[in-house]
Amino acid sequence: MLADEKSQSAINLKAAQYYFNRELSWLEFNYRVLHEALDQRTPLLERLKFTSIFSSNLDEFLMIRMSALRGQIATGASKLTPDGRTPKQQYYALKQRLQPMVQQQHQNFEQNLRPQLAAIGVNLLDYHELDREQRVYCQSYFETDVFPLLTPLGVDSGHPFPHISNLSFNLAVIVKNSQTGTVRFARIKIPENLPRFLEIPTARQDSPSDKEAIWNGIPLEQLIAHNLPEIFPGLEVQAYSFFRVTRNADFPVQESEADDLLLAIQKEVEKRHFQGFAIRLEISAFASELIHQTLREKLNLQPGDIYEIEGLLNLGDLMSLMALPLPEYKDQPWKSIVPHRLQGITRGQDLFREIRQGDLLVHHPYECFSQSVEMFLAQAALDPDVLAIKMTLYRTYCASCKSPIIKSLIDAAKAHKQVAVLVELKARFDEETNILWAKKLEEAGVHVIYGLVGLKTHTKIALVVRKEDQGIRRYVHISTGNYNPKSAKIYTDLGLFSCRQGLGKDINDLFNFLTGYSQQQTFRQLLIAPINMRDRLMKMIQREIAQVQRGYSGKIIAKMNSLVDPGIIAALYRASQAGVKIELIVRGICCLRPGIAGVSDNIRVISIVGRFLEHSRIFYFQNHGSEEVYFGSADWMPRNLDRRVETVTPIKEARLITKIKEILEINLADNRYAWELQADGTYLQRSPKPGEAEYSAQHVFMDQLRVQAKGHL
User: Fold this and answer.
1) Three-class secondary structure of residue 464 per DSSP
2) Considering only Cβ atoms within 10 Å of each terminal Cβ, which end of the chain, N or C, has fewer?
3) Eight-class DSSP state of 147
4) Average pLDDT over the chain, rounded to an integer
5) Sign of the C-alpha dihedral, residues 247, 253, 257, 263?
6) So what's the pLDDT on residue 256?
7) What Cα–Cα distance (Å) separates residue 230 from each residue in 192, 226, 251, 489?
């Protein structure tokens, strides 16, 4: 053994110094989201969108991840993370990073975005900026539409402090009875069923600024605050403040103890709104000390849990302004292209015949979801030769929307086809929607399975069984994304249509595992978690190491949402030490530390945060020229490999392997939205080198399909 090989073998690859913290890494991802709101190259209304996304992401992080750490601290848990931190160390490191990040978000909105909106005629006004006629309009709206919905709740010996529901937006008010001198605290909940921003007409038509105004509006909470004397007649309003509470929403279901999983999930969802402990208080910076103290004590919060906000609270609501008719301040609209091989197919023609000609790859949102996935299921529902449809649903469409996929499944059941659907009730924050659709499917005669005890079903698969002249044939669709038309427009995902016999049998066996008591442990082609995926991935990484040791080159390219699993990371370190070149495209959390001499100097990590949410999981292994490419639903995280049902499929046709390699290479070449992870944990955004053109992977994919579409007109 050579000296450097001896030194490498002596390195403890489990040492904490070789891992980034999972939670802190997520915060850095959300900062990259915020950066799109800070970046002046981003169209103005898109900057509002990213501001909103940052807020929504952070809400969920606090409700789940921060709350879980707080719970661990309360129980005295001291287990160390791979990077060597206790729950308490993580919790306080996160709070230290969060406060300045949130402050930067609000400063950017108040000091940059709000004035820039005003400059183009979008005026989000404060109450004191309204003229007389605008105030008359607002007063009328308050009296007719707002006042009847308000319920002020006082706090005294006969009125206990009200329970503040999770993520509710509120007014805290201090009132004084001038006759008795009594000072009381009261709370008013801002109605959730009214628009957050009240659009008001332009009053002064002779004003040059008003002639240019496109939209005038005022935050609903300010309208309520300036009508407090009407809400508390006879009392003196001494102070008020806006506030918002975030609560723990991490209520794991005790599945093994539940007699009825659906009922158990419903009960846990109810807890999320009211029963969780408070984890964060957002409050106006002008709040009085009495309001501050009352909320802090009643919600049992520490000073570090309180975020004093200068300006507008709850910036997640800014997403509503994306509806303004200002296309020049948004990304250029993208209309998905019908995949070339499907352009001649309508719902009345035979899609199955096209699939029999060879595997079909679709790339969303660049290629059309409705004219591929939805059409596949719609034709299956109508085709008299189709005998059965089976599929998994993880995140379904919104409860109030029409879902073409749900309609097709119901149509198929009504046509007396066998239809079986696994609806994952444990898909966090989609439980209520999934329950609603599950009940609708059951009412239509669909066999609905609610998931497996102890495992979350995250795989995205559909199986169509069809009677043909040659006998029964199975058609499959395997995807990296959910069967959700809304996310299909904003998430980048891959899907494969195939009637390969091995894949069909594997999917059939997997459904037997999901719906019955099958103990299937071997599969012909698919990698299935938690059965064989981890083992196969480790063997393929080791195979690249072996190729290098034989004197050949080794290469791995992997694209995913998150890389957390310590076992996989250690295997990648060993591969890097052996000389395998490793390119990782990890959108979100990455616990692997690249660029460490003797450990990970052959590993490069980039993250792309752009117009679309990078969601596809793709794995490439060079294998000494016999290249292998896989894609599917699984990230490289312990939960995906050990506690979820996941599916990853091999790509067999050479032309599709070439296509997917091209997708990976285009992503790796991005110099506009790509960030490179450094050895110290920071991310540096790429920029074009002198004389180099700006290159966005997402724009390239759109441009390629525009050209392709023109060529086939």
Assistant:
1) strand
2) C
3) G
4) 91
5) positive
6) 47
7) 21, 9, 41, 46
Catalytic residue among 458, 477, 699, 712: 458
Cross-strand pairs, 617: 632
Helix (H) or strand (E) holding 442: helix 431-443
Map tokens 């002639």 to a residue: 211
pLDDT in tens, 397-409: 665 567 899 999 9
Please state, in angstroms and rounded to a whole number, the distance separating the CA atoms of residues 386 and 363.
26
Phi, psi (rounded to 5 degrees) for 222: -70, -35
Nearest CA-CA partner of 351 in 383, 327, 313 = 383
Per the structure block, which two tokens stand in for 610?
A: 């752009």
Three-state secondary structure call for residue 146:
helix
Instruction: Give tens-digit pLDDT for 328-344.
Output: 999 999 999 999 899 87
- CA distances 455 to 253, 425, 451, 642, Å, are 12, 11, 8, 9
Catalytic residue check, 699 = no
pLDDT for 258 beyond 60 = no
How distant, in Å, are the alpha carbons of 28, 361, 395, 487 from that of 481? 24, 13, 9, 8
Quick check: 628 and 64 in contact, CB under 8 A?
A: no
The residue-averaged pLDDT of 348-374 equals 93
**3-state SS assignment for residue 518:** coil
Cis-peptide, bond into residue 365, ω within 30° of zero: yes
pLDDT at 164: 92
Q: Is the dihedral of CA 481, 486, 489, 491 positive or negative?
A: negative
The number of beta carbons lying within 10 Å of the beta carbon of residue 690 is: 4
> What is the spatial order of strands in the sheet that 122-124 belongs to?
122-124, 215-219, 197-199
Find where tokens 């427009």 sit.
489
Cβ atoms of 252 and 212 within 8 Å: the answer is no
> For 461-504, what is each residue's pLDDT tens digit?
999 999 999 999 999 999 999 999 999 999 999 999 999 999 99
Q: Rounded to whole angstroms, what are the CA distances from 559 to 21, 42, 531, 573?
A: 20, 25, 22, 17
The amino acid that residue 704 corresponds to is Q
Outline where 321-368 has alpha helix (H): 351-356
Q: State whether residue 457 is helix, strand or coil.
A: strand
More confident residue, 179 or 218: 218
- pLDDT over threshold 80, residue 378: yes
Q: Which helix (DSSP H) or strand (DSSP E) does residue 48 occupy?
A: helix 44-61
Structure tokens at 657: 């392997």
Task: Judge contact between 262 and 450, C-beta under 8 A.
Answer: yes
Residue 677 to residue 692: CA distance in whole angstroms = 22
Q: Residue 205's pLDDT band (boundaries 50, 70, 90)?
A: very low
Which structure tokens are listed for 199?
């659009």
> What H or E segment, with its residue span, contains residue 101?
helix 87-108
Instruction: Note the pLDDT of residue 260.
Output: 59
Residue written as token pair 């998905």: 336
Q: Are 379 and 352 in contact (CB under 8 A)?
A: yes
User: Is 105 within 8 Å of 315 (Cβ atoms)?
Assistant: yes
Whole-model pTM? 0.93
Name residue 493's beta-bridge partners: 364
CA distances from 278 to 60, 163, 281, 482, 651 (A): 13, 11, 8, 32, 47
Tokens found for residue 245: 């509470």
